[in-house]
Specification:
The chain contains 12 helices and no strands. It has 195 residues and is mainly α. Helix 7 crosses helix 11 and helix 11 runs antiparallel to helix 12. It starts with 6 loop residues before the first helix and ends with a helix.
Length: 195
């Protein structure tokens, strides 16, 4: 594994070694380890000017990847397990309160528009398809729903499910936060014990 003293040094060395060409070849269809290298090159080249801790927070706050992307990135940056967990959790906790507070009122306003009606219907159908445990157990189901580290079962989808099932803010916040914490601990333990 390559180690660099700074992000600037990483970009300089990787550019000199022709990694931009490797990333372009990967983009053109080469998969496997070259794809992993392309992701690493992208992160170093585009987010390398930021502190690695902030990059982990940003990736963990992003929809879809959440903790499942932030923790492996922290491992790639060779952060200790406890530091990786803290920054990934921080990033994944960031969108919970705004989503719980703003999704319903924003939706009421935007449902006037046809494009948002289609988006809202798609989100509703997709969330309901995955959230039978939330329907059955309410706030406790949100913990299970969020804690299982599968695609589309993270904090974003749990916030939508809480909104669609009218779970009170306080219960939803506690349940989703607990689920994120459980998921983070499980992923960290697995990632740092295996690799």
């Amino acid at each position: 594994m390559l180690e660099f003293a700074s992000a600037t040094e990483a970009v300089t060395i990787l550019t000199r070694r022709g990694w931009d060409q490797r990333a372009q070849r990967t983009h053109d269809g080469i998969e496997g380890e070259d794809l992993t290298e392309a992701v690493k090159v992208f992160l170093i080249a585009h987010l390398g000017f930021l502190p690695k801790e902030l990059v982990v927070v940003i990736v963990s706050a992003a929809p879809v990847v959440e903790l499942r992307g932030g923790l492996p990135l922290a491992h790639f940056y060779q952060m200790p397990a406890n530091q990786a967990l803290i920054f990934s959790l921080l990033g994944n906790f960031l969108p919970i309160i705004p989503l719980l507070l703003l999704f319903r009122p924003t939706s009421r306003i935007l449902l006037r528009f046809t494009w948002y009606q289609r988006l809202h219907a798609w989100l509703h159908m997709r969330t309901m398809h995955r959230s039978d445990v939330v329907e059955r157990y309410g706030a406790l189901g949100l913990i299970l729903f969020t804690a299982i580290p599968f695609p589309t079962t993270g904090a974003y989808t749990a916030c939508l499910a809480a909104s669609f099932f009218d779970i009170r803010f306080r219960y939803a916040l506690i349940a989703i936060s607990a689920g994120v914490l459980i998921s983070g601990i499980a992923i960290t333990a697995t990632l740092y014990s295996l690799f």
